[in-house]
Amino acid sequence: MLKWLLRPLGISNLRSVWMTMLISNLVLLLIPVSMGAFLYTKVEASLENGANRSNKAMLEQLKLSLDGKLNEVEKLAQQIIFDPKLEYLLKLSGDPDSPDRYKFIEFMQNTMSRPGNITNFILDYYVYFDKSDLILKSGLMTDSRKFYDMYYSYQGMSYEKWREEMLGSFHTMAYLPTATLLRRAEYDPMESLDKNPLNVVTFTQSLPGRDRKDIKGSFVVLINESQIKEMFAQIESANDSSIYVVDGDGRTIMATDREPLPSELLSRIKGSGGLFNQSLNGDEKMVSYTASKKEGWKYVLVTPRSVFMQQVIRIKQWAVILFALCLAVGMSAAFMITYRNYSPLRRAVNAILRGKNWSGKPSVNEYEFIMQTIEGSLHEEKNLRNLLAQQTPVIRSNYLSRLIRGQMDVDASERGGQSLRFMDIEFVSDYFSVIVVHIDGIARFNEEQSEEQWALARFIISNIGMDMIEIPHKSFAVELDRDRVVFLNNFDPQLFGDADRVIREMCVSLKTIIEQRFKMDITVAAGLPHAGAKSIGESYAEAVAAFEYRIIRGGGTIIHFQDIQKVHAHYYYPIDIEVQLINFVRSGDTENVLKLLDTIYMMNFESGSITPEIGRCLFFNITSTFLKIINATGTDQHDILGPDIDLVKDIFSYETAEGMHKRTKKLYELLTESLVTERTDHSSQLLQEMERFVDEHFTDPNMGLGMVADRFGMTPQYVSTFYKKQSGKNLSDAIVRKRIELAKQHMCDKDLTNAQIAQMVGYTSDVVFIRAFKKLEGVTPGKYRENMLPSYADDAG
To answer: 154 — phi, psi (to 5°)?
Structure first.
């Protein structure tokens, strides 16, 4: 039939596999029949004994193999430890400038180089020198801190604990239990992201090993646990067993099962070997063990008894049934199986012939024909995938960029997710948030600052940022600009309530790693988490709005949109403060000018409740005041700013409010100091005019700070400060003194009462006059007349 179908295509010499399949099935059916009777008589009696012997033999083989591997470790240790140069190096300080430094390098090159007979069983080894705090391994010499941070460290173990327990404690040919080793790249920190942790058994020997109290170093060998487990694999897979390696203290050095051996089982493991049954968690186990040449080590094999008993029962039940069935229906079953197996093959060939035009060499049989067809299809698919893979990064970046800007809706359904998988994008829900990372500068990362370095900076931030989010959430990075990377965070719907915490921790972790490890300055702005098709565009708009607050909070900060919602749309810069600032500048009072500018900045920006737009308005207003003073004093702008400099552009060229504030203070300081010289004579003249005005009008009841301020066009506060600074006394006290002196002159006239004198010197009430007189002279006006003017007292009598 197949030949008839393929004859029009020129493939007529196919040889059908029908007979091959039929003969194979008949043989397979007859083999169990012929051997079943013989095997049944032998299996039941010998199964358990054979299993025990097999287990014991495999355990002994495992012991010999593993002991041999461990001997390699000890031979390596003896080769390094008994090197005559080692004891001398243990005494050296390891000073980088010392000529002995080369001896460490020579020892590393000559002795620490990896011997040719060392297999993959030994992952690596190194020597630690306590006095010099150096670690030597093949091709490497570094200090312990850098070695722990950049090469090998243990999961869950800090540097201090590793150095104290493993390197600083006394060990004699000690094997430590399995631990997870974190491996890092030696030259490129980014490669460590691709290195998986590895379980290792650690061998350690203290140096020189003669005295527990005199530990000068350690020799450490890292043994690859996977190599040991490969030795266990045959036994473990053969009978569903668990294998344990236990030392003399009962510690499990390594095991294929996570559950530790119970103490009651360990107590029965004695002597050089044995076999016994033990009930563990209600399940009967067969325990085989043998002793190693290592002092106190035991190799323990724990096998479920049910494995053997079920096989025996199953063999009893099925032996008779299969024997009868095979004899009764063997031939018919062979024909039916052949037909069923051949039918899919025939349909597959027909489908291929209907779906495409065949153009190739004639095939031997149906399998060869299908294989040639599949190879051709795979080759075409590979070409298409390669072409698509070349365009995938561009397509992915364009898609994420449009998605983040809200130019398209996201489809997080299963159907929509299938259309995105070719871009390696898979959303877990329609809950999203956006984080904007602005690179403030890469000067500390690389002084070159070329486009290649900027691209590398964006690459580092993108990869690290995507790793910062907690699983099962996801993060996607897209580069929007030369100095800007945006992260699209997709949250698991069941954990969306915890999204705000995840965002904040991600921002802090990303900023810490980028600034501390890679020396790049960044500003991070985060939008709120949202749900729905338009959630991405909304969150991006919020993140951009939060980033605008960089002018308020400065660069190198983390700004969350949630934290900037409670702001007010006004600023503190009243007219009287502006007038006071103008007066301070015009009087040349640099100290008070700078203090007042600091006060204005503190009142508006340190609270963090002002918007960027209002903040710019405030600086524009302060700049306007600066221009008013320049215009009023006739000062040339070029003397302050320099030639060809625009004042407004100069101040607003700074990206942060702090920078604008510092520049504003500098300009005000320059302007104030430029007015100091020409204002010095003016201050003296102004003081004389004030004193002349007070002398002429101090008897006026309205005389005070307000009247003097109105006369000279200044604020009362400024008048008080100016008069105090120039004359050394308060203006109010000077007015009171002049009035009291005039009152004392009028007291010589016996006809004048105290009330009349008070009105004559400028007081509207004799009570106020008496109080001021007593405060200044120490006595009341009447008492003064009695004591100082006796004639007045006689006439009064």
So the answer is: -100, 135
